[in-house]
Request: fold
Amino acid sequence: MAKHIDIVPTWVRIIVGLLALANIAFGVSGYFDSSVLFQNSQMGIDLASLGAKYASYEFAARNLAIGLALLIVAGKGVPESMAIMTITRALIEIQTIVIAIATNSFASGTIVAVVLLSIEILVIVTLFKVIAKRDSN
Reply:
């Protein structure tokens, strides 16, 4: 087994893998159902319109790409790569939270974003500690 895989705690790799699967699931579902992206919309968006479909496809592509990258880095176990991809995902959660604050529209998605961000911060801090410990040896 490669040395970098040995130094990353198993629970971190499992959590990153689960985050990957969640992104992949949202990505795939976004290609088939625009309501995944516009689920809480009260704006009267025509989900059959070309604009809504293209927005959904962009959402799907982004989530699928992040999910596949997370899955790859979870499998490889390289702490720097795992940290970078988890930071990318955390930045998206922060965006969701900031938008909720700016629009004063707190919903269940905001709570999920806060919970996921907390988990991602724990993973990132752990990975930075792993990197620092490895580099000090």
About this structure: The radius of gyration is 17 Å. The chain has one domain: 3-136. The helical segments are 3-7, 10-32, 50-76, 79-103, 108-136.
